[in-house]
């Protein structure tokens, strides 16, 4: 029995297979409508996340399966002091697979130790969120046709942005990938990523402070939110924030096939006017997220691809 | 692609068709058990409403479809500052149709601008609640056999009662309809309805302060709740409230085929003893609400009537 | 139409039939996958209980049915002042059967008076929780092969433990049953159970203060949580609590076929090390809970056993 706890749990080959399955699902959705008939997914969200939860639920329903679970810790046994290990033992009696989001780092790992069913980490604190990374990979591969030989810009809060760290860790496994890291000084990528992932793997990258200067060279731009509360003072925030807001004007500096990704939710870091740009891929990304989760559920449940 | 945002979005002919379909569903429920197989309804309730949410869910399940969503804003992305427009773009990737309740007027309209799927307004603040109006219309037509040539009493809080305003706006399109508006002075119908809807359409109506006096002339009595907090002072409330409580004694003054409707939930404005009266139609109304929502979902999804 | 409000609503013969059906379900699960196609279960949880709610939902889904409802009172019409009677009248329009948990004693009974569909009491305050009792009975019968001629130890909070009271009331109907009641003096079984159930039925029982002394004689040990807040003072709690914590060391005193049950959630009254003991049956119990609820739903809906 396998779990998905960390974006690197799957080898490059396994990710290739998963993305190929997701692509086949995208192209032949009705053929998958019953492959999980009679199966149940438990969505255990100790911390609310509408987007991720509904994406998993849509995925399971698209496969013909059922969904049960909880959307916040208030309505869970956690309030009565039950351990995650005990909860997952119980859930193993109720469902065939589960997706778990928990505010505490490592809790998906703890759950997997006790689970009798496959556990998907749907986010554990600031730690990991592997299905977001799989979604990002599928989006890049679908739109650019490849995962290698790409220059990827990552913009915004690179210090605390969990999705950014995971995406870098996943992409360094493909040849010819370069990164442009665009952030204010306060929110630069942490040393653990710069040294242990980028430098250790001899990956070319540059760190810049200005989005405008970087835009022209990128194949993919991955935007994230710059949160006011990350800044030491209001003046710094006001001075810096505009540099990290993507506008129609800025998009003129970008290549005609530079796609914009964003893990969502967005607040104001991409102007609404950009949504109409054909290079805006962040809503398409939400759609790919459903397909990749369908492929993941099938893979972990060892469900055969329909012929 | 069509939405249902306002009770008047459908013409009289379209409402006729919808109610005919709802009636056929009522009479042949099992034939509709699979017409929405593989379809998904998203219930987006930014404000809790058990009754409306479960009615939609029951409707979709009766058609063979699946349901996903959230029951309150706490467990939604709204807490992270996402706009309704962005949320609906995401939901369009997850579901085939959505029903949305939101405390802010006009939010269903905003959602519909961005949605790639049909949006049903399940209540936007004090503004509109069109599926309640469709339910009311189906109840009246089913029980009275017609929507024209009726004297309709509306009793209670006519000032703030959203369902009352919508029902009046919908009923003035049928010939021969008269209204008796029964309320304390503090809660009279607003000018916008009296002048722009009733007088502008030359609809006969009278405003009275006493339920007893009006009862004998009515074909339908639509009760609503009189909330204590609407009154200026406690004495007025105590003095007036009994006039607007329907009792078995009062029902003796009504015609033998005068049906009582209520949008529910009821607090004390209809005495429980009245529930046994065959003219009490408010629970039947809840049942009609499911059929009419089934018909609406089919209509907006352009699902064929089974043969 | 029947309801299940109290563990004693079913006769011994009816429980025999129900447990036989549950056992057949356990052994032939796929045969039951569609017996409730098109049926809907409403889960009305005015008080959160993940375990019980998800067990019901899994049960209904295993039978092919759908589930709708609410997980806490915040998202229910109760907040608008609706009575339980009115809510159940409405729910009767939406679902075929319902499971209701409510903090107030007797509320399931009130609901059943007004319901047009079978009501299952899923816990009403400290009062009754009959499906837990059915689960306990199925666990004992499955593991011990019988419900008669057993010595049953009940340990922990016997004063407030609803499940303990119900299990005693249910087990006294089988011949040859003896009880060993193990608790601190503060948490002894109430007189209502000691006198009206045990003594009135001439059931042999002893009350002891020490788990170690009792363990050797038991066929079944039913553990419950000893909550700190039940004690008059901290010193008493610290002095006493270790006597009521089951450890691997203590398990050496027990018979090789003495099964441990626990209604869960557990906090610390069973050491995690005991989970590996083959006599630990509390997670298996959660699995039996699903089968017995499947049997119950089928029985109340009068669904035929598949051939």
From TrEMBL, chains A, B, C:
Keywords: Pyrimidine biosynthesis, Transferase. InterPro entries: Asp/Orn_carbamoyltranf_P-bd, Asp/Orn_carbamoylTrfase, Asp/Orn_carbamoylTrfase_sf, Asp_carbamoyltransf, Asp_carbamoyltransf_Asp/Orn-bd. Carbamoyl phosphate binds at residues 51-52, 101, 129, 132, 264-265. L-aspartate binds at residues 80, 162, 225. Pathway: Pyrimidine metabolism; UMP biosynthesis via de novo pathway; (S)-dihydroorotate from bicarbonate: step 2/3. It is an enzyme of class 2 (transferase). The keyword Glycosyltransferase does not apply. Its EC number is 2.1.3.2. Residues 149-299 form the Aspartate/ornithine carbamoyltransferase Asp/Orn-binding domain. Residues 2-141 form the Aspartate/ornithine carbamoyltransferase carbamoyl-P binding domain. It catalyses: carbamoyl phosphate + L-aspartate = N-carbamoyl-L-aspartate + phosphate + H(+). Belongs to the aspartate/ornithine carbamoyltransferase superfamily. ATCase family. Catalyzes the condensation of carbamoyl phosphate and aspartate to form carbamoyl aspartate and inorganic phosphate, the committed step in the de novo pyrimidine nucleotide biosynthesis pathway. NCBIfam families: asp_carb_tr, PRK00856.1. Heterododecamer (2C3:3R2) of six catalytic PyrB chains organized as two trimers (C3), and six regulatory PyrI chains organized as three dimers (R2). This is Aspartate carbamoyltransferase.
